[in-house]
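Input (structure):
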């Protein structure tokens, strides 16, 4: 093949590539996506499966990819799960469920769909109905989605998420561990002995009781904590930047030592000192705050 022929073929190929790129650009400019036909068709929410677990379950592990999970109290005393989706998923992508040595393991099996330019992950939703009792542990590892946990009694609650929205309410645990890269967490009417919160970014609101230890590590974002009934015996905050607002009961009694590179710490109560350490009442409990920048405010409930 002569050089002239090769050059001609090359020019023809690049002409088609350029024409296709221009066409795609104009389609996107008009608000359309030419690649949606590669993705499954989204329809009405429908039930994929419903299962009743008759085995004795003392701990639970959930791995979810996209969509969401809702954990709620069973009204009939039976442990049941219902999986739903707006997509026509084949059985190979339905949730995998196993029980071994009292541990219920639930794994999402939806697969991402790839084409030349994009990828897409169909979502599915799990409703988990738990009989009312004290569970040893609940571990949830999620990529993204909407997650609700309510009316649960568990010794250890461990949540890890890349992103998404979490709503935890009316729940009691001895230990509560939360590790999120980004997202929104709403924790309401939760009682725990130890709260360990790790955030890269996002927004967290806490309204509940922490009896022994409150620990938070935050790169950026916002934490608003309203601590009810009692103040924790120990508190440790480490923040790179962001905003943290802590509200304590009048009966609290602590001294907080603040180490900061820059930023601001606000001690919002009468007769508070103007520099670290900041004492409220006799300074019985030892609290620590370490911050690179940002704003931390400690308040007392009116």
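Output (sequence):
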């Amino acid at each position: 093949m002569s050089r002239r022929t090769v050059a001609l073929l090359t020019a023809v190929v690049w002409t088609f590539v350029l024409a296709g790129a221009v066409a795609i650009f104009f389609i996107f400019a008009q608000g359309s996506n030419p690649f949606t036909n590669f993705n499954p068709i989204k329809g009405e929410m429908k039930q994929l499966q419903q299962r009743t677990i008759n085995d004795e379950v003392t701990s639970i592990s959930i791995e979810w990819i996209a969509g969401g999970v809702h954990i709620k109290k069973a009204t009939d005393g039976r442990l049941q799960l219902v999986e739903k989706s707006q997509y026509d998923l084949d059985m190979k992508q339905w949730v995998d469920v196993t029980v071994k040595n009292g541990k219920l393991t639930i794994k999402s099996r939806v697969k991402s769909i790839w084409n030349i330019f994009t990828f897409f992950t169909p979502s599915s939703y799990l409703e988990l109905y738990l009989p009312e009792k004290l569970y040893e542990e609940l571990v949830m590892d999620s990529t993204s989605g909407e997650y609700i946990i309510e009316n649960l009694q568990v010794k250890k609650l461990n949540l890890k998420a890349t992103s998404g929205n979490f709503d935890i309410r009316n729940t009691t645990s001895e230990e509560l561990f939360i590790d999120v890269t980004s997202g929104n967490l709403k924790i309401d009417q939760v009682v725990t002995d130890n709260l360990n919160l790790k955030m890269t970014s996002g927004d967290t609101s806490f309204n509940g009781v922490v009896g022994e230890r409150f620990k938070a590590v935050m790169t950026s974002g916002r934490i608003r904590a309203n601590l009810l009934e009692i103040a924790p015996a120990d508190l440790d905050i480490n923040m790179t930047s962001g905003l943290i607002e802590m509200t304590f009961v009048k009966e609290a009694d602590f001294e907080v030592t603040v180490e900061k590179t820059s930023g601001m710490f606000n001690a919002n109560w009468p007769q508070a000192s103007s520099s670290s350490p900041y004492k409220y009442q006799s300074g019985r409990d030892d609290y620590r705050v370490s911050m690179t920048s940002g704003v931390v405010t400690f308040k007392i409930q009116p």
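Notes: The first strand starts at residue 46 and ends at 53. Confidence is low (pLDDT under 50) at residues 26-39.
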